[in-house]
Amino acid sequence: MIDSAQITVQAGNGGNGIVNFRREAFVPRGGPAGGDGGDGGSIIFVAANSVNTLLKFQRGMVLKAPSGEPGGSAKKSGHSGEDVLVEVPVGTEVWDTTNSKKGVLIGDLDKEGDRLVVAKGGQGGLGNTRFATSTNQVPMLAEAGEEGEHRELRLNLKLLADVGLIGMPNGGKSSILAAISAAKPKIANYPFTTLEPSLGVVYFELDAFVVVDIPGLIEGAHEGVGLGIEFLKHVERTRVLAHVVDGAEPGVVERIHTINEELRQFSEVLADKPQMIVVNKIDLFEDENQQEWLDDELHAAFGDDTTVIFISAATRAGIDQLILEMRRLLNLIPRPIADPANGLADHRGPVLRPAPVDRPRSVETLGDDKFRIIHPRALRLARGSNLDDWAVLVQFQKRLGDLGVTRDLDAAGVMPGSTVIIDDVEFEWD
Q1: Half-sphere exposure of 417 (CA within 13 A, CB side)
Q2: Fewer beta carbons below 10 Å: N end or C end of the chain?
Q3: Residue 171 shares a structural domain with residue 279
Q4: Is the residue at 119 inside a domain?
């Protein structure tokens, strides 16, 4: 099962706006006619039940969206790039690892049809028509298109299930899943038979719930020992844990404590989930009183209110009672409800909220009476206009005032005659 992938996404750039003037015959006053550039396409993930693995995202996949086209004459706007819709499995977490290996969670697609813009297309640049005013009827400025977002992403798939079957290898989890659902996991008499999680749907009267069989955990699983570290994340979304233990082997209580400690080391949230104990293989009990004293021992160790079910997956003894208890516990725990303000469900811990966006820096001081303009909108304007033309440069400096850049230059100490640099253009401040 492929449940993790690292990919690169590149949204489309916005098209450039252009400088153009009407020059039709018999039209005495032409005026500006430069059209806007089209917006770049975005890359959007869509959660789909038809996809159940991240296999297609392997080998460093790079996803690109088309760029917008430049504007045209006669106020014609360029075509926008089409958005790229990419289907991912329901339960996919998206982490932005562009600036850190650990990454930042930017989205969690845990419902069919959920959408997440993982790379936003660049905005198209404005044509010179947009800069016409009553005092500037011959605008010679235009904007270059905005660059589309570039991101490095890590995708993590966490299976969605109501009940998670956990426990040490060879406890009979796969046999139980096969007994209560139509799933057909591999079953054999050796440890680590199950190498990847298996899902099964359990039908109960007019209701149904999903059970996931997690590959056997052992001591040290939270540190990567055995297979556990790969699959512990799949039980984070479950509502109830069913701790399966081989009742015919000695040390039942100690084995349960060992696995519960691994859960706690991996995640406190996981360790606090409601848990029932399922004692399997009662058909192998040699003492007719073994079930009774084992029941007393388990309740003494884990509390009188702990649900303990004795079953035999091989003979189906106790299977109906197991399904009833699973359903009863699930009814006591409401399904997580998404927060409509940000789309994150309450079972994922603290709600993620975007950090406040500071006003972008607009000026850098370089020393020797030199200053560099780094305001994003001013940069686009410089790239879309011919600043070698003195008349254009005059309009550009006026526009810098509208954008607040002139104020920041004054605060930085610019004086008439200072050198101002923007992109690859250098001019004397006037």
Answers
A1: 1
A2: C
A3: yes
A4: yes
